[in-house]
# Entry
Amino acid sequence: MIFTGDSKFVDFLSGTALKTVDKYKIWKSGSLYAWAETRGTLKEKLGQPEEPEAEGGYDTKAIADLIEGEGRLICLSIVDPNLIKSIAIDLSKAVLMSRKKEFNVEPLVLFVFDETQEFVPAYDKAKGIEKDCTVQVETLLRQGRKYGLGGCLATQRIAYLNTNALQQLHTYFVGPLPRPYDRSLVSNTFTIDQGILEKTLEFAPGEWLLSSYIATGMENVPIFIKADNAETEIRQFLRT
# Structure
């Protein structure tokens, strides 16, 4: 087949890609399906001059340099789920590999993943980029601490998580767990008695069950704590 113009080739590529993913029932949330679905957008680039790189933008390397440099707090909030997973994979891999090559442990870095079920799903629920992400974050948690890299996982859906990754954590803050399955999973994963976990049903806002040998010096002995309201503390700090 011969194409006389770029536009016709894009039409052919887009049509063939969509037919292929439909034929082989490719998972619609995976990166391969996303690639096939967006081939048609290439037509918008035909004949257009290359746009200069936007000033003030950050790629993965630039963010990694900030982490290793003067950055104190870096927050990434991106709507596209596949994009944020891709960044999580590339960024954690880049920082970990850099530390390994130089055997450097400073500065100490804490990677915080909110809505963790999006980044570290259980293996039987992960496909495509989700599987790549859960493998990479687990690798970060498993290998990172010897290089000054830590991890914090926050979620309300613990039943959907990769338990191998959870077991790499040393400190656990447990809030109310209304579902028996969640309590059972936490009990088995973190070695906490079921009877103690049932007490979480009575928690008021700000109350937590803390289990940490490193922080408390008591192995497998969780304690109940009440945390200060962070918004109140910030408000008072700004006033003074």
Remarks:
- The chain has a mean pLDDT of 84.
- The first helix runs from residue 6 to 23.
